[in-house]
Each structure stands twice: as C-alpha cells, then as structure tokens.
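Task: sequence in, structure out. Protein: MYND-type domain-containing protein.
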Amino acid sequence: MTCELGASIDWDSILSVFQGDPELIARVSLCHLEREISRGDELDLLCITCDLQIITALSQQENIRFAYMRQGVITIAAEILALVVDRKWEEDMQMFARRSIADAAALLRSRIEEMDALPFLSQAIERGLVASLLKCEPLLTSVGQPVALQEMLLLLGEILPGYSVYRSVLHQLTLAVDSAMAQGLDAKLSKSGGFCVGWKRLKDTVNERRRLVKRDASSGHVQTCQNDMCSKTSHIGRFKRCAGCLHAYYCSWKCQRYDWQNGKHKQFCTRIHQRFVRTHGHMSPVHSKDLKFLDQIILNELKKHRARLGSHPVKLTLVELSFLIGGQVDIFFDTRGAKANPFGTKCKCELYSNARWKHMAEVVREGKKPMVLVRAFIPGGMSRKIVLQAIPLALVVEGRQDQRRNRPVVEKYQFNLIFTCCGSERSYQPVTATSRGFNDVKVPNMD
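Result:
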C-alpha cells in the first residue's frame, strides 16, 4: 500500500520506541488488530488491511516472526478470513475485503510453512479455515485476484491435503469436509474454477485416508534402535526416546551412549536442540497415533503399485515417496536395487538420515526374503519428516502377515526410523566438533 502511495516507512525509527523487544512489538500490533476485529458489524477493513500488511512486513525479522507465532497470529488471521468471507460488502469496500483475504491467506500459508506446521495448522482448521476457503471464491474471481487466488488454492489444494497424512490433522479435516458438504458450500463452487479442483483434491484425499484409520488401530507399529551397530527392531513402547531431540529411539542406554560417542546422533541431536532454542520451544514430536497411521499411509501407496513390485521380486527394491505436495504422491522406483543412494539428498539436513538409508540397504541385502526399502518425505513446515522403512515384499504384494500372535511378528530385517529436518536451508548452520560448547554437551536422558 505504501508503494502505491509513493511513500516509505522508517521502520528503524518506529521500532526504536519498543527498544528492540520482539514480544512487545508483536503484542502491541496484535492487540490493535484484535481490537479492530472485535468491533462486530462495524469492521474497518482499511485498518485491518493495514495491520495485516504491517504484521507481514515485521514478520520478515525472525525474532519478531517467532513472537507473533507464540502470541497467536495464526488464530487471528484465520478469524479475519472467516469474518470477511461471511459478509456481503458494498462495492466501494470490496477492494479492501479482497486485500484482507489475500493478506490473511498469505500470512497463514507462509507462517505455517516456515514453522513446525502441525500445531499452527490445527489452530487454523479449528477456526473454520476450510469453510472460509470455499466461501471466498465469488469475491476473488469476480474481478481477478491472481495473488490472492494463488494463496487460497495453495492452502485448499496442496497444504491441507498434504497434512492429512497425520491422523490428528485428518480427524479435523474429516469434520471440516463433512460440515462443508452438509452446508452445501461445495455446490456453490464454479465447476470450471481452481477452487473446485482444489476442493476435489482435498475431499478425495480425506475420503481415501479416513478409511485407513481403522486399520492402524490393529497394526503392529515397530521402532528400530537408532544405533547403527544394533538396529534392533521391536513393537512400539519397548524402546526409550532420546529426551534431547524427542525423535530418536534406543533399546538401551548403552546403545544411546555408543551412538552419541561414535555415531552421528550427537550432531543431529545438537542441531535439533539449537532449533528448539531458536524457536523458543516450537518443536513437536510425532505422536504415536500419527506414527501408526503413517505406516498405513505408506503401505497403502505401495499397494497401489503391487503389480509392478510383484513382477520383479528381487531381494531389495528401493522406493521413494514424497507426500510434500498435496494429495498427489510422487513415487520413484529403483527396482534393480543396485544403487545405495539412487535419489540423492534434498538438503543438508538429510545427510544424517541418508547415511542410515545406505546402511539399511546394506543390511537388508544380507537377508533372504525380498524386501521393499522405503524413504518417505512427510510435510512438516520447517521440520518435515523423513521416514525410513524396510517392509517385507509379501506384505505389500499379498497383504500377508503372521497373525499367530496378538501382534504381527517383526521380521529380522524389518526397520522403521523417523527423522526430522532441523530447519530451513536458509537458517542452516553447520555443527562441527569444534563448535562452541559442542564437546561439553552431555548425552541426553531417555524418556
């Protein structure tokens, strides 16, 4: 807006009043915005639009961005979106309504993707994000708003379907999709528009994955000891979790200590802790229910290609799955199993998991039963997840499990590991043995 008026803002002078306190800056600007949206029928869209653009500009500074997230900017942005799309605006106010929608959607999308996305996405869904996205089409498409449309379609057709791989998010999305259909919001969409395409992707993805929820209740999720020299695998609940990173599991204190001193966990755990400190605690581990559900999601995708996998029953088949782009799952095969690292790494954070991927391939080749070695990329904002699994080919092709016990028997060469990215490429800082304080870090406890 300042560019349109040919004006500029002296941010340094303005922020000097707050003495560089990011919490105070966030609190003052959000309080002003909350006061505007609490006015009920007397909403001042011009003020709301200005407040949103100021928050967006200030969010470019990382410390202020984290302060906004801690103080509930996602909830406020979702509420603004719902308030604006639920009303009919006079023609002279529609421009400001469209700007408010565009700024709120851009704030939601960018901030969710730049943080540990799960808790913040849940906040937005609870505030009626799905219904708001479906209601905004007439206001945006009537005059053409390419930037606003792009943000809304990204949320509706890519981000929301992508995070349905988490059972906790899928539950929220199931309720939101059912509610939208009960209200007939989908029937009002233009059949040839992008909103209809995005809605269909979201609805189809949710409907497909909601059928998998009942299966994971009886599935035998397994965990693998992170120590390369052990790699023992057992049912969930048998191993202890590293209290430092909240992601690595070990069968014993001895294995954790060995991996800390001789393996790669010291670097990984320290970088995770650095991100935890930098984001003031915005880091959440994956819940056990989500872990079980991820097993079913991955197995379901593999079964779609059972004919291809079954036609070449080699000892080891390498498969990479990417769930990062909406409900569309990208799958790549290396059926010959000749390359230990056929797909390369996506960012520096994956070097640790990639080393384990190579080691798993070597170990699995020693077995007699045909196995499928899977590397799956799971969305998570700045902390996307990487799941490594070694699954018996018979389980994929024939759906066969040994049910002689209460839970499926764990195969000797069956693995299941999960890693998290430590942050964005932009914020990456290498951790070395000579980094300040690195040698003084003690082995974390296990919980």
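The domain at 11-211 is CATH 1.25.10 (Leucine-rich Repeat Variant).
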